[in-house]
Amino acid sequence: LSLLGFPSCATQIIYGAVNQSVTLYTSGSVLIKEIMWKKGKDKVIQWDEEDSHVKAYPPFIDRVHLDLISGNLTIFNLTLSDEDWYEVDSLSITNTKFFLRVIEPLPSPTLNCSATPEKDIVVSCMVPESYSRYRKLVNYSWNCFSAQCQNRSNSSEVIIGREADLSQEIQCIISDPLSRQTSSLRLATCVQ
């Protein structure tokens, strides 16, 4: 398998959230004498032992930290434009590539319900349309009160049997690799 042309054994997909920080960890465990991190073809930060000066490049000035012992790179205050391939270049560290995916915080899901002609209740869990980036990373799960809750794995809908206790609440949980959000609904609001 490959991801955008790089062999999968040499790449890692790392997730970071907008306005948060993320650390890209190297596989280095030897003394580093020089190191450079690149985003695509552009320099992010570099250091060498001879001039002992760490130099960050725009737009990363004041937003990155280089650990001079491990070679790890931390990026602060992530923006969507930080998403890209990152590569460490050092004689001390095996050539490692990362793909940084920057995702927006998950919004709270919206629950809607309706009754079927058979009097079952269908509850839908919806992510707002404004959340369009990486929708495919969103997973759905449900907290239901009884065995009458029938849902498929990772489905945005659940069917509640007509004999259900309408005083109960149902919860929809959406999650991505970094966060989760929950919304709940009292079943009595679904019937007239």
TrEMBL record:
GO cellular component labels: cell surface; membrane
Keywords from the UniProt entry: Glycoprotein, Membrane, Signal
Entry's Gene Ontology molecular function annotations: signaling receptor binding
Keyword Glycoprotein: yes
Localization of this protein: Membrane
Highest taxon, organism lineage: Eukaryota
Protein name listed in UniProt: LFA3 protein
UniProt source species: Crocuta crocuta
